[in-house]
């Protein structure tokens, strides 16, 4: 509540709540409801997309960690430097291929997320008719 000074000089309490006066809220929703709905759909698509990206990266990290552990075990069993070199070369080739494939997956997924998020904002705004106009 806000205090205001009346014409007589006495303090009076004034409500801080805005008046909706004669359907102003309905007019606001009629004017901006489409934008609000589009923003909510965009936020939902972004959230779902970020969850999917996070899950993909977590899965990839888990797979790579498992490969790293397996390679360490193979290296510990090598009998000579030549065998260790072959194990490390195979590991490097496999890791490079997996990282390239993962980068491609993440780029595709990111493009899909962006497309899904922008779609509600790019949808045509419904036209209002004279009968739809707020009073």
Structural overview:
This protein has 135 residues and is mainly alpha-helical. It has a domain at 34-120. The protein is 70% helix and 6% strand. It contains 2 helices and 2 strands, in the order ββαα. The chain has helices at 24-76, 81-122, and strands at residues 2-5, 11-14. The protein has a two-stranded antiparallel ribbon. Helix 1 (24-76) runs antiparallel to helix 2. It is rod-shaped and about 85 Å long.
Structural key phrases:
2 strands, mainly alpha, 135 residues, 6% strand, 2 helices, rod-shaped, two-stranded antiparallel sheet
Summarize the structure.
With 135 residues, this protein is mainly alpha-helical.
Q: Label the overall shape.
A: rod-shaped
Order of secondary-structure elements:
EEHH
Low-confidence stretches: none
Helix share, percent: over 70%
The quaternary state of the protein chains shown equals single chain
Mean pLDDT: 83
- Please report which band the strand proportion falls in: under 5%, 5-15%, 15-25%, 25-35%, 35-45% or over 45%: 5-15%
Helical segment count:
2
Total beta strand runs: 2
If strands are numbered along the chain, what order do they take across the biggest sheet?
1-2
Structural class: mainly alpha
Write the layout of secondary structure elements.
Elements: E1 2-5, E2 11-14, H1 24-76, H2 81-122
Antiparallel strand pairs: 1-2
């Amino acid at each position: 509540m806000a205090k205001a000074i009346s014409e007589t000089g006495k303090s009076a309490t004034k409500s801080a709540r805005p008046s909706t006066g004669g359907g102003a809220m309905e007019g606001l929703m009629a004017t901006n409801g489409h934008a609000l709905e589009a923003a909510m759909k965009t936020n939902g698509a972004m959230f779902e997309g970020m969850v999917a990206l996070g899950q993909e990266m977590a899965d990839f990290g888990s797979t790579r960690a498992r490969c790293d552990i397996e390679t360490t075990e193979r290296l510990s069993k090598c009998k000579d430097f030549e065998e260790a070199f072959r194990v490390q070369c195979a590991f490097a080739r496999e890791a490079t291929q997996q990282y390239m494939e993962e980068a491609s997956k993440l780029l595709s997924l990111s493009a899909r997320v962006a497309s899904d998020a922008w779609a509600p904002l790019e949808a045509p705004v419904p036209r209002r008719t004279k009968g739809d106009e707020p009073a």
